[in-house]
Design a protein that fits this description.
about 130 residues, alpha+beta, Elongation Factor Tu (Ef-tu), domain 3, six-stranded antiparallel barrel, about 25% helix, globular
Length: about 130
């Protein structure tokens, strides 16, 4: 497959930046070593919430953080992606994936090693593109 064809097969999600609840900052910081084992990256304690026009279901082959691994009550799917060309991850709890969580499937939460809002001067309503890799 040529590089051009491969690029066309990438999933590109476009949405607007929205404020979140602030919950992930606590959990990422508390379980930083576990997230590092799963992603190979020290994640900034917090996510960038992006609201899509359509619900997005994560593929079944995501990286998984199972609640039993850390003695918690929430399992998380971790999907590699890029935002602004930077390696990052979509994090989605099983509750959000099945419709019983704090966010609908139109919200994706992006985690990386920096605070994206500060680095790229993002504010609510700004459009961003997330490329699933």
């Amino acid at each position: 497959m040529s590089k051009g064809n491969k690029e066309r097969n990438l999933i590109k999600l476009t949405g607007k930046v929205v404020s979140g609840l602030g919950n992930y900052s606590y959990w990422i910081e508390k379980y930083q070593s576990i997230y590092y084992e799963k992603t190979g990256m020290i994640l900034f304690p917090g996510t960038l919430n992006v609201e899509l026009n359509e619900p997005y279901n994560l593929p079944s082959n995501t990286i998984r953080l199972e609640k039993e691994e850390y003695g918690g009550t929430v399992s998380v799917s971790i999907l590699p992606c890029k935002i602004f060309g930077m390696k990052s991850f979509i994090l989605r709890t099983d509750g959000n994936a099945n419709g019983t969580g704090d966010h609908p499937k139109t919200i994706i939460e992006i985690a990386t090693d920096i605070k994206l809002r500060d680095k790229f001067n993002l504010k609510d309503g700004d459009l961003v593109e997330v490329v699933v890799i």
